[in-house]
Amino acid sequence: MFFLFLGAREVFESPELERFGQALETIQRRYPAITLGQLATLLKVGLTPQEKGEFASVSDIVARSHGQPYPTIARQIDLLGSGAGNNSGLQLIDKAVDPNDRRGRYVAISKHGKMLLQELDLILAPDIIERVAPAGKAEAQTKP
Predict the structure, then answer these.
(1) Is 93 within 8 Å of 107 (Cβ atoms)?
(2) Which long-range contacts (CB under 8 A, 24 or more apart) does 99-105 make?
(3) Domain 36-124 belongs in CATH node 1.10.645.10
(4) What percent of the chain has pLDDT over 90?
(5) Helix (H) and strand (E) counts for the chain?
(6) What is d(CA 70, CA 68) in angstroms, rounded to the nearest whole number?
(7) 14-35 pLDDT per residue, tens
(8) What sign for the dihedral angle of Cα 143, 19, 49, 129?
């Protein structure tokens, strides 16, 4: 039934669902260890309004995580960043400490994270180049 809500006439006829599947496949191919929870946290970091530059507080991310406890989100952030314990990180998030309160933690999407999110944008919204780039420049940007 979910497929029909996406506008499909038949159960499996949904371009949006196909693009979503392609996006998930891209993520899993590039980052096989990433979980859906970590992906959700990555997206929350990317979408959380920031007041200071590109960084958002971990508390703001937790507040947008609808019932996920702080330790869970903090661990996901560690794994999306430089890692935790014996687990190496995915380098998709940069972390910083509040210079005024060493207990405060801030996060932002890293260069690798931005590249992944841009690629997902192109998969999920293929017309994004047309909306962002003026006519003629889109072709020049896609050619090597």
Answers:
(1) yes
(2) 104/57, 105/57, 105/58, 105/74, 105/77
(3) no
(4) 35
(5) 8, 5
(6) 7
(7) 788 888 889 999 999 999 989 9
(8) positive
Residue with tokens 């841009």: 118
pLDDT band at 78 (very low <50, low <70, confident <90, very high): very high
**The two structure tokens encoding residue 55:** 């960084």
Would you say 62 and 71 are in contact if contact means Cβ atoms under 8 Å apart?
no
Q: How many CA atoms lie within 13 A of 51 on its CB side?
A: 3
56 and 108 Cβ atoms separated by less than 8 Å:
yes
Q: Is the pLDDT of residue 9 over 90?
A: no
Provide the mean pLDDT of the chain: 80
Going from the C-alpha of 79 to that of each of 12, 24, 28, 34, 92, the distances in angstroms are 34, 18, 15, 9, 9
Cβ burial 5-27 (10 Å sphere, 16+ → b, else e): eeebeeeeebeeeebeeebeeeb
Cα dihedral 96, 98, 103, 105 sign: negative
d(CA 34, CA 143): 30
